[in-house]
Specification:
The chain is mainly alpha-helical. It has helices at 24-45, 48-74, 81-95, 119-131, 140-148, 152-161, 188-196, 211-223; strands at 164-168, 174-178, 181-185. Strands 1-2-3 form a three-stranded antiparallel beta sheet, covered by helices on one side.
């Protein structure tokens, strides 16, 4: 019997090795099945130690899967409902002082909010600077929509839930902050240069790229939008 090659769906290009992409949900359900089998076996064998060892092993393998699922979700993907339920159960258990089986014992430190500015935070800071008249670019809202590839309503939504504050001292020193980012500059021109970039240098050099353009590049990459033109 002649062997045939499966047809490639319209609009899809076959990969070199035709390997199927492994989704976090696939790995999650494999591990869930292993855990369920172990729990069912315990009722028959009554070997609690063996069951705990198996559950600890599956939990250890599960953590990278959950992390991958969350990273994909942060990049614009969707989180499988059962993975979301599992994470909710983990958080609820954590609030009761119960850690996942594979996690090490507490060392006394505490995890907290990630102190890192997201692209949207920088955009809101740029918007605040524009409204205070601190930028060389006067059409700052249009610049934001162009660089980030979004509509004005997106910028308005970001501003609603993200803070930015800018103060100018009597000597002209500008202090600005948004979540995870602080910019201090001796003058309004220096502050604008930090945000907008330095036109003295060629655009391909790092010195020319201000915080706004870096943020726009990151946002576009995260959302799968076309890259910025030079």
């Amino acid at each position: 019997m002649k062997k045939t090659t499966p047809a490639v769906p319209a609009g899809k290009q076959p990969t070199a090795n035709h390997k199927r992409r492994i989704r976090p949900a696939d790995e999650y359900f494999k591990l869930r099945r292993r855990a369920g089998t172990a729990l069912a076996r315990e009722r028959v064998d009554h070997d609690n130690a063996a069951v705990m060892a198996e559950l600890r092993e599956t939990d250890c393998q599960l953590m990278p899967v959950l992390l991958q699922a969350l990273r994909q979700c942060a990049g614009g993907g969707k989180l499988h409902p059962e993975i979301a339920d599992h994470l909710a159960d983990m958080i609820e258990a954590g609030l009761e002082g119960k850690l996942p089986m594979s996690w090490p014992e507490p060392i006394g430190g505490r995890a907290t909010w990630r102190n890192r500015a997201e692209p949207e935070d920088i955009a809101v800071l740029y918007l605040a600077a524009g409204r205070k008249g601190l930028l060389k670019e006067k059409a700052y809202l249009k610049t934001l929509t162009r660089l980030f590839g979004v509509a004005e309503k997106n910028i308005e939504y970001w501003q609603k839930y993200r803070a930015a504050d800018i103060t100018t001292a009597s000597n002209g020193y500008v202090s600005a902050f948004c979540y995870g980012q602080t910019i201090g500059a001796p003058s309004a021109d220096a502050f604008a240069q930090a945000l907008e970039g330095d036109p003295v240098f060629p655009k391909e050099l790092p010195q020319a790229e201000g915080e706004l353009r870096k943020a726009a590049k990151e946002y576009r990459a995260r959302r799968g939008l076309p890259p910025l033109e030079p």
